[in-house]
Specification:
With about 230 residues, the protein is an alpha/beta fold. The chain has a single domain, classed as 3-Layer(aba) Sandwich (Rossmann fold). Helices cover about 40% and strands about 10% of the residues. The protein contains 9 helices and 5 strands, in the order βααβαβααβαβααα. It has helices spanning about 30, 50-60, 80-90, 105-110, 125-135, 160-175, 185-190, 200, 210-225; strands at about 20-25, 70-75, 95-100, 145, 180-185. Helix 6 links the parallel strand 4 (about 145) and strand 5. Helix 3 packs parallel to helix 5 (about 125-135).
């Protein structure tokens, strides 16, 4: 068996500079039982999802970077909720880098609560609201990552999957407008669905399993330059 020299430093070049503060905001997929009021610190404060996975991998591979990761996900949130807490949970926390993944509930409520039309967020409102929020914070940031919403369903003709794709296209357009890194989480799950049923990746096709969260973490890390 080939011996591995663990003392040899890894040549890893990521886009986030050392000593940066990375704030990750979103809905329940980001939340994952993170600490309140701010998800940061000891004892699973970052939750049990992809944010924790990202922090663990970066801390293990790049300890000298001393990256500070903060989780501000909140279960059930739509882009309207982000708007209500943008000042307190983003602007006032002064991140160097910001990662946003929102949109799943904006779409989901259109399907699981169809008689309450006000519960979902139409595409034009979604795009305009997110655009406004990003415009407020982008000049203050060293970097921005926009992660698309997703639906872990391999039938692209499924009505909710097709609608979610539309919101993902809107996020991609906003990433181009605001000079952000776009992370196509739907594409990442589509690749995984070639080998596994959606039930293995998320029991309800929305809330990922441990494997599903690692797929999200990998997609994010690939986006910032850590290929694995």
């Amino acid at each position: 068996m080939k011996q591995v020299n663990h003392s040899k430093p890894m040549n890893i070049d990521i886009k986030i500079s050392p000593n940066s503060k990375l704030l990750m905001i979103g809905d329940s997929v980001t939340d994952c039982e993170r600490a309140r009021p701010v998800g940061e610190g000891l004892f699973n404060a970052l939750g049990n999802g992809y944010v924790r996975d990202i922090n663990s991998i970066l801390s293990a591979l790049l300890p000298e970077h001393r990256l500070r990761v903060v989780n501000l996900g909140s279960s059930g949130n739509t882009v309207r909720d982000l708007k209500d807490r943008w000042e307190s949970d983003v602007i006032q926390l002064t991140p160097d880098w910001l990662s946003v993944m929102i949109g799943i509930n904006d779409v989901w409520r259109q399907f699981d609560m169809p008689l309450q039309a006000e519960a979902g967020v139409p595409l034009d409102e979604y795009s305009a609201t997110l655009d406004l929020l990003l415009a407020k914070v982008r000049p203050k940031l060293a970097g921005l990552v926009l992660m698309s919403p997703f639906y872990i369903e391999d039938n692209s003709s499924d009505r909710m999957r097709a609608r979610m794709d539309e919101y993902g296209y809107a996020v991609k357009a906003l990433a181009q407008k605001h000079n952000a890194i776009f992370v196509d989480t739907q594409a990442a799950f589509n690749q995984a669905l070639k080998h596994n049923h959606s039930a293995y990746l998320a029991w309800d096709r929305v809330h990922p399993s441990a494997v599903g969260h690692m797929i999200l973490a990998r997609a994010f890390l690939n986006g910032i330059g850590l290929e694995f």
